[in-house]
Amino acid sequence: MPKRNLLKLSPLPIEAQFALEALGERITRARKERRLSQREVAEMLGISKTTYVSIEHGRDSAQIGHYARAVWLLDVPGTFLPVPEDGVLALERGRS
């Protein structure tokens, strides 16, 4: 069986690429509203400035976890992350 190169992935569907770019724009806007530099946010996230710039440009090379942490750190409105009240904490309260 021939070896597959796992680094050669098929490109994202155009809709997914547009969604990442839109998310990157919202992250950029949130950073600027807070008057933070790209370097400052990258340091807070524990990633390189280059990786953070990739996030702001909506590139698929950045890990989805980095996007999620940036959304959480900058409290980006209208994103996919649930408010704790509506998510896990509400479920935990229901168990008691």
Structural class determined from secondary elements: mainly alpha
Biggest sheet layout: none
Overall helicity: 55-70%
Kindly, what is the distance between the CA atoms of the first and last residues, rounded to a whole number of angstroms? 52 Å
Tally of DSSP β-strands: 0
Along the chain, the helix and strand elements come as HHHHH
Flag low-confidence runs. 87-96
The helix count comes to 5
Radius of gyration: 16 Å
Mean pLDDT: 82
Shape: globular
Content of β-strand: under 5%
How would you describe what is shown here?
The protein is mostly helical. The protein contains 5 helices and no strands. It has helices spanning 14-33, 38-45, 49-56, 64-74, 88-95. The protein starts with 13 loop residues before the first helix and ends with a helix.
Key features of this structure:
96 residues; 5 helices; disordered C terminus
What's the gist of this structure?
The protein has 96 residues and is mostly helical.
Structural topology:
Elements: H1 14-33, H2 38-45, H3 49-56, H4 64-74, H5 88-95
Helix pairs in contact: 1-4, 2-3
